[in-house]
């Protein structure tokens, strides 16, 4: 149990980093291709990545408190 | 009254409103005026009603004071009015008591005494009359009768004194005396009665005989007188006739006197007899009654005969009187004629019939003229007489009627008296009969009662005999039983003592055998306990093999050994199975390792102190981290005896737990850690589980070792 906390954090950070990087990359690409090298798509992309990462992290941390419903397949 | 007030107020208000038609303020003024105006008329009405009510109440009270019935009615209908009346008038008078029954008795007594007085009075009156008229027959008969009746009544009313009870022997003696006295009295009485009856009968017969003789004499005299009147016998025969007549007359008078005297005597005797009968009645002997009754009957019959004879004599006498009167009249007429003749022809002597030759013609003529004149005179007298006859007859008839009536009354009264007497006699006879019947019945009833009494006595005696017999038997039985029980007790005592000795010896033998056996058993037990203890020690040793961060070896082997060593011991078996399975399979962590782990847990718990179900966003996480960095608590703080609400803060709890861990109290530390909430609790869950396991195992092991020690101690202490 004690380790879970740490593990969560590890996952969370890794995931966030990946997402931010991905967002940045996509943003750069879009900025270069479609938006005439403006900065806003980069910021936007990285923001989107950050937001997604944050959200995922939060979801992961909340997970023991969230109830999951399962669809029971009728036989 | 209230309505009137209201109506008055309303009407006044309306008038005011209608009258004015001006807005609010004058209306208010008007209102005050109307209240004032209606106030005066209301006051009048109030005063009038108060006066009326006061008058009504006062009138009611006055009338109730005068008429108690009205007061009672009002008290019944209106509650609490009786209190008002009590205040005003005082308590109501009680209703008058009816005491009619008390007055009845004196009246009865007075009536009795009056009857007695009345009966006395006629007696006195009769006595007077009797003295006045010695020849009267009616009064003496009723008078003695009435005296008889009165005497009877008096005796009856005197015969009501109370009867006292006397003792039996005395009663018997008295009864015997009474009987003897009665017998004597009876004999004397009966003899008296008979004597009196005899004498009376004789005298009465004499009187009757005398009366009959008188009757005969009177009848003869009358007959002779009539003969003398009617017959025209020659003078010498006439004189003999007259002489005979005189004799007869004297005879008659004599016999009448005799008869009167005899009647008097008879009446005296009858009275005496009546006196004797009264005396007998006074003595009140029951047996004498029939004789008394018979005597009375005789008396009555004698009286009746005497009366009838006397009446016959009376009628004869009256007839004789008529005849004598007639004879007197005839004689008078003859004397008159003779005188007249003598006056006309004084020379002619009495014997004038033989003188027809001596008479001259003048004398003859004068005689004839005289005769004619006499005839005329006589004719005239006759006519006059005829006329007077009618009047005389009428007056005579009337007189006769009166006399007849008188005679009838007298006859009726005597007949009534006789009838009454007869009825009384009959009644007395009937009474006598019924009395005899009743006495016979009473005798039978008394005999029956005596028989019942003897039966009852017999029964009672039987019952008593039985009771006494049963009592004696009971006593006998009880004494027998006592003696028997005594004997049995003694024998039993002897037996018991012998048995006791035998038992004691046997018990000692048994005791010795048991002691030897128990020694053996005790040795066995001691061996077993030793074995148990050894296995428990082995378990303890395995517990100590925990490295710092690794658990101990699995305890399974040691537990198995314990189970084998104490196969019969249920407690040890139970305890051995109570160990948690994880400890058996995996082993448990030691306290030291748990202590070391705690510090990492504590750090983590501090960091996530703010996170629980409601606050678990990443921002909260950031805040919680900030708190953990900035908040400083004591590393170790002594936990209080009781946890209050503010002690349930995570940081405090953790410091308490640290303190208790440092002081070796894993249990308390686990309890405190159990109080964590939210995420802190979640991260500490692992540690808590381990701590629980360790605690459980340690508890069981300590129990086992304590048990083994106890058993060992117990076995070593066995005798």
UniProtKB/TrEMBL annotation, chain A:
<comment type="function">
    <text>Component of the MICOS complex, a large protein complex of the mitochondrial inner membrane that plays crucial roles in the maintenance of crista junctions, inner membrane architecture, and formation of contact sites to the outer membrane.</text>
</comment>
<protein>
    <recommendedName>
        <fullName>MICOS complex subunit MIC10</fullName>
    </recommendedName>
</protein>
<keyword id="KW-1133">Transmembrane helix</keyword>
<comment type="similarity">
    <text>Belongs to the MICOS complex subunit Mic10 family.</text>
</comment>
<feature type="transmembrane region" description="Helical">
    <location>
        <begin position="16"/>
        <end position="35"/>
    </location>
</feature>
<keyword id="KW-0496">Mitochondrion</keyword>
<keyword id="KW-0812">Transmembrane</keyword>
<keyword id="KW-0472">Membrane</keyword>
<keyword id="KW-0999">Mitochondrion inner membrane</keyword>
<dbReference type="GO" id="GO:0061617">
    <property type="term" value="C:MICOS complex"/>
</dbReference>
<comment type="subunit">
    <text>Component of the mitochondrial contact site and cristae organizing system (MICOS) complex.</text>
</comment>
<dbReference type="Pfam" id="PF04418">
    <property type="entry name" value="DUF543"/>
</dbReference>
<dbReference type="InterPro" id="IPR007512">
    <property type="entry name" value="Mic10"/>
</dbReference>
